[in-house]
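U., I forgot to send this yesterday:
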Amino acid sequence: MVLKPFFSAVLLLLSGASLTFAFAPFAIWPVTFFALTIAIRQLHVRPPSGFMTGWLFGLGWFGAGISWVHVSIADFGGLPIVASVGLMVLLCSYLALYPALAFYLTKRLFTPALWPLALPAFWFTSEWLRSWMLSGFPWLSVGYSQLDSPMAGWFPVIGETGVSALVIMLCTCAAIWTMRRRYLPVLLVMAITFASGWVLHNYRWTTAHKTYQVAMVQGNIEQSIRWEPEQDLPIMNTYRRLSAPLMSNDLIIWPEAAIPKLEYLARDYLYQLDADAAEQGTAIVSGIVNMNFESQDIWNNLIVVGQKVDGDDGHYRYGGTNRYAKHHLLPVGEFVPFEDILRPLAPLFDLPMSSFNRGEFMQPNLVANGIRLAPAICFEIAFARQVAANVHRNTDMILTVSNDAWFGHSHGPAQHLEIARARAAEMGRPVIRATNNGITAFIDARGEVTARLLQFEQGSISASVTGTRGLTPYRYAADWPMIGLLLISISLAAWLQRQARGTRAA
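Result:
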């Protein structure tokens, strides 16, 4: 049905905004199919090029879905409400360009009958661009919404990016075929996709290796005091106090920058912590900031104190190699582009600890008490290719630490946990996720949360974690199989388009 332009625009904004309910904490996965099908039907009936159709849908999608960003801007950025809202509108308008590009190319180059072959390829490409342009923001990709759906089994095979393309294919079929009253093919394609996903979900791509007792500490430190010098010792003592009853575990995890003091200045504390942990036969992994005072280089690090391998203790030393430096830095929060211009403008662009250097893309696994850990700090867990590059055949589990205190009571932390679940499913590895104020959680190798702490509470949690070995198809081949399939589909669509034009000309 053709709607008047105003009502059509409202429908697109609302359908995009409704996608929020498909992601955590709501996780109503069928919403994805309804929202995208509505948008694609509007792409068919709206007379413009398709760009504005995709942009309006994307504006609703990101405007509602990442509204949590406004919490950090408004509460910690020091900007007036008009400026913070303006920045959010600018960010969402930028992110909406990517679905707009996919919709534009699809409508510009192909007839609607060929959209099921073309749109998944253009969508996949635009989402790939979104994952690295301007340092990348691959948040809220539609594949994440299917972690609890019958499509969950596809994650270790084609990854979240492949699941996104599969979702777009199903929604395009539903949109175009139902407009022509071809309901049976739609039901058949969906049934095959869901059934195969269910079968794949019941197959184990990696094998259990060894079970460890792991504990995580959630300090629940207020963001406003984390970098106050007079709070250094109280915060560090809080983590030691919370960890004292946990020393019987094989491994203890503290969150990102749990130690709020530069590593060089915290050496006495770390050496004592190392000795205590080694004496108890455990290891502690903690986030900490390190600085080279000569070069002024600064890194967001993870370090290990206590036992490195069974029977070999006391291995922490300042400048040692058993550490991880964050590679993918968060714009504004950890580095400021054009900082000479932006830093004087507002506190948002001059936050404490916002001038970090990058670590390498690939780094050796952390080794803690014989456990091999593939680390990801905060935002990095959203980058599947980087996580995959650091998961090897002998990696036991994935470790991700974060500080989501920036996002208050919004749904940002729940979405962050959902992303970590996707990495577990893709890699066939358990994920242990330690955060400052939640959501601290254990995730098994299928992407299911097995235990978690409540948000905004100080405490600890312990659980048995079974490390796995081996590689999933996605870890082994990454996105290349899906790229090959999409190249075939877009090539077939182009060939069929030429054939149709030739027939009409004849």
